[in-house]
Amino acid sequence: MTRLTETARGVYVIAATPFTDSGEIDFDSCDRMVDFYLDAGATGLTVLGIMGEAPKLTTDESSTIVARILKRVNGRVPVVVGASAPGFAQMQDLTRRVMDAGAAGVMVAPPGSLRTDDQIVTYYTQVAEFLGDTPFVVQDFPLTTGVQMAVPALARIFNSLPTAVCLKHEDWPGLAKITALRKDGTLNRRISILCGNGGVFLPEEMERGADGAMTGFAYPEMMVSVVEHHAKGDMERARDLFDAYLPLARMEQQPGAGLAIRKYIMFRRGIIASPAQRKPGANLDALSRAEIDTLMARLDRRLKELA
């Protein structure tokens, strides 16, 4: 079993959870989705993230879908599992289940009740104690969690907890945070920094010192291309490709509608059989679907020009 380490880089796609129109888990679409992500060049997958509708799943369903994805991946890339929970007992139980099944590590977001640096550091210290030797990702997503994780707090976490190996950087604006974390003397080791927010700042994040992306844009091949061209030193090509996808990445970032848009695009691309979310969930009206169809058609034309 490959374990997550500080060397994680590339694109860890946040996997959606496919449902049927009636709200059941669609395992056939799940298999097809995994194949698509790997064919697109994903270097890892992240399951049961915020955009994976994890709170709408039972504990048994969560374990079952992780097992299905791990079986389909078959060790080709590391799989990280979102393990955030209201209490440590639930977090510990899910972590044990998924690590026994072959996961590479887990991701933990802070509860919204945390306000001070000391509270944040204490929380993650307890996370590390409960998870034992399991490597974990610290999810920094204040737009959703409401928790502001300043650089000094993050430094205390990573400098004192060896099993905290990766930061999912999803602050907005947050480019200066990447620079501060990469500054000599801030951290006592180099950690992995993978970025979110649908990839809308990925070129700048890579230039600031990020190692890649951990997010769920419906065109993961864009993120793979940006990361690969950055590694080659060809940011002009990376930005040209990024710019072509930006209208759709921007469309996906709409609060409240983003997941519906992402699932609709995945449905239109033949990745999942239905764009349905498990209730409660937003639905797109006909005009919104038509707007997305237009952007997808424009993207196809632009990619042919760039080729």
From TrEMBL:
<dbReference type="InterPro" id="IPR013785">
    <property type="entry name" value="Aldolase_TIM"/>
</dbReference>
<feature type="binding site">
    <location>
        <position position="214"/>
    </location>
    <ligand>
        <name>pyruvate</name>
    </ligand>
</feature>
<protein>
    <submittedName>
        <fullName>Dihydrodipicolinate synthase family protein</fullName>
    </submittedName>
</protein>
<keyword id="KW-0456">Lyase</keyword>
<comment type="similarity">
    <text>Belongs to the DapA family.</text>
</comment>
<dbReference type="InterPro" id="IPR002220">
    <property type="entry name" value="DapA-like"/>
</dbReference>
<dbReference type="GO" id="GO:0008840">
    <property type="term" value="F:4-hydroxy-tetrahydrodipicolinate synthase activity"/>
</dbReference>
<dbReference type="GO" id="GO:0005829">
    <property type="term" value="C:cytosol"/>
</dbReference>
<dbReference type="Pfam" id="PF00701">
    <property type="entry name" value="DHDPS"/>
</dbReference>
